[in-house]
TrEMBL record:
Domain AMP-dependent synthetase/ligase: 32-396
GO MF annotation terms: CoA-ligase activity
InterPro entries hit by this protein: AMP-bd_C, AMP-bd_C_sf, AMP-binding_CS, AMP-dep_synth/lig_dom
Biological source species: Dimorphilus gyrociliatus
Superkingdom of the organism of origin: Eukaryota
AMP-binding enzyme C-terminal domain residues: 433-508
The protein's name in its UniProt record: DgyrCDS6865
Pfam family name, one: AMP-binding
Organism classification: Eukaryota, Metazoa, Spiralia, Lophotrochozoa, Annelida
Length: 527
């Protein structure tokens, strides 16, 4: 039921949030886990750590960091692919009081330089393979660089060397943290609108999200069985990979099989060998599994719950995934970096295909009409605004941008268009809806849709399409869309064929890059 301000709440009761820091939460959970249970396995090499080994190692590394004179609140940038060492260093850093700013390890020198300067990083964690980019990006603030490799290299300290520490300088139990104000993570927004911005995620933001993930309706638990395993391949520099997978699974005691990146053959082998009870997907991988004939040979019956996020799937795509793979436990969620991660999640036992689930505990939603500024009712489309303890503190050193994104009374403006139905299920609409329909066309490999300026309509949708077969025509696509969607959703902005859709590794379409293509095309036509 909508309240007087037009908002709706979660169907689930508010939970009592603990006034606890992330390192405190981590240490408490580690004390409860079976020390002999496997915590992490390298998917490629099968090297592993038990929870007991992991606890011992991260405390030694944390002690070494504190012993080197690192100060609470200093920032360390993580520029590394997924690995067991990433997990170790992350746990070590937060228990040493450091703030972690993860960075896309595919970033250019320019992009990394920008982030290092913007977040005032004092330290960097990387691997030997990425040292050329790191060294080209350094500034005078950087005090030391740590690497995940076995041995130190040319003044870059291996975390295995740090792990030789006696552990006596471990500060995890003595940190003085203001959970409401102190940031624990500073990820960077995707940069789809202007330059990327540092997102200040506080300890309270993060622990609230983690408490929500433990709720049973979202397949959560504070203590898992001995055989509960997952396969993880989404990047840890993204909120989905870092908070939902690495940290959440660590707190819940789930064994994690870590892939540095998604490789279909390795993924299939891991499914068959480790029989995970849960995995997390993004739409590009969902589409790959639909189209890859090898996926149809894999027995996925071990899976009890699959979360899917980063961008929405249409009902058609979701139903096709179910019919092709025989996997029926996929549940979508919706969120953004600025909301720590998720504001809606699909429940294990109650879900509507094509939706992003319902509001998580302690979160409210209202839908705002973009023309009138008034709130919308059931089934009415508008901009999604959310409020709750998982809304970020703000953009780092950007008060103006923060005010533009968060209202004075705490509502986070997402910029995404959607609606809720009578049962509280939340749906995201165009351009994701158009993209999802395009991706069901048998001759389309990938697609991205953006709004382009139009004097009469303001903005109209335009599609960028990657062909699966060469004989695909624009007329075929327009006819396909006309058969499936209302007139106002048709591609009145046109269709361009390109070689690749620019995406973040999380799966989100880089719409700014597509808009830049359109701008360049317009300028060239005027010459």
């Amino acid at each position: 039921m909508q309240s007087s301000d037009g908002s709706i709440g979660s169907p689930f009761p508010d939970i009592q949030l603990r006034d606890i820091s992330v390192p405190e939460m981590l240490m408490l959970s580690m004390n409860e886990h079976d020390p002999n249970k496997i915590a992490f396995i390298d998917a490629q090499t099968e090297r592993s750590y038990t929870f007991g080994e992991f606890k011992n190692l991260y405390k030694r590394i944390s002690s070494a960091l504190s012993g080197r004179g690192m100060h609470q609140g200093e920032v360390i940038c993580f520029f590394s692919p997924n690995s067991l060492e990433f997990a170790l260093m992350f746990a070590a850093c937060i228990t040493a009081g450091l703030v972690v700013s993860p960075s896309n390890f595919n970033s250019t020198r320019f992009e990394l330089t920008y982030q290092l300067n913007d977040c005032c990083a004092s330290y960097i964690f990387t691997t030997k393979a990425f040292l050329p980019v790191v060294k080209a990006s350094l500034n005078s603030n950087i005090k030391e660089i740590f690497i995940a490799d076995k041995e130190s290299v040319n003044g870059f300290t291996s975390i295995f060397e740090l792990a030789l520490n006696d552990g006596k300088s471990f500060m995890g139990n003595n940190l003085k943290i203001n959970t409401l104000q102190d940031a624990v993570i500073i990820p960077y927004s995707s940069g789809t609108t202007g330059l990327p911005k540092g997102v200040e995620i506080t300890h309270r933001n993060c622990t609230a999200m983690l408490d929500i993930f433990q709720q049973p309706q979202f397949f959560g638990s504070s203590k898992r069985s001995k055989n509960d395993t997952t396969v993880v391949f989404l990047p840890f520099y993204h909120a989905y990979g870092l908070q939902k997978l690495l940290l959440n699974n660590l707190l819940q005691g789930v064994s994690q099989v870590i892939m540095a990146n998604f490789v279909p053959e390795l993924f299939y082998r891991c499914i068959q060998k480790y029989k995970p009870f849960t995995i997390a997907l993004v739409p590009p991988i969902v589409n790959l599994l639909i189209k890859d004939t090898k996926a149809r040979e894999i027995n996925f019956t071990c899976l009890q719950y699959i979360s899917c996020g980063a961008s929405p799937l249409s009902k058609q795509i979701e139903e096709k995934f179910r019919s092709v793979t025989k996997i029926y436990c996929l549940r979508q969620g919706y969120g953004m970096t600025e909301a720590t991660l998720a504001v809606t999640l699909g429940e294990k036992d109650s879900y509507k295909v094509g939706s992003t689930g319902r509001l998580v505990n302690n979160v409210r939603l209202k839908v705002i009409d973009q023309e009138t500024g008034k709130y919308c009712g059931i089934g009415m489309k508008g901009e999604l605004w959310f409020k709750g303890p998982i809304v970020m503190k703000g953009y780092l050193n950007r008060p103006k941008e923060t005010r533009n994104c968060i209202t004075e009374d705490g509502w986070l403006k997402t910029g995404d268009i959607g609606y809720f139905d009578k049962d509280g299920y939340v749906f995201i609409v165009a351009p994701a809806e158009l993209e999802s329909v395009l991706l069901t066309h048998p001759k389309i490999k990938d697609a991205g849709v953006v709004g382009i300026d139009d004097e009469r309509a303001g903005q109209i949708p335009k599609a960028y399409v990657v062909k699966k077969v060469d004989n695909l025509t624009k007329k075929e696509i327009n006819d396909y869309i006309a058969d499936k969607l209302s007139d106002f959703k048709r591609l009145r902005g046109g269709i361009d064929f390109i070689e690749e859709i620019p995406r973040l590794p999380s799966g989100k379409v880089l719409r700014r890059t597509l808009r830049d293509l359109e701008t360049k095309k317009t300028l060239n036509s005027q010459l």
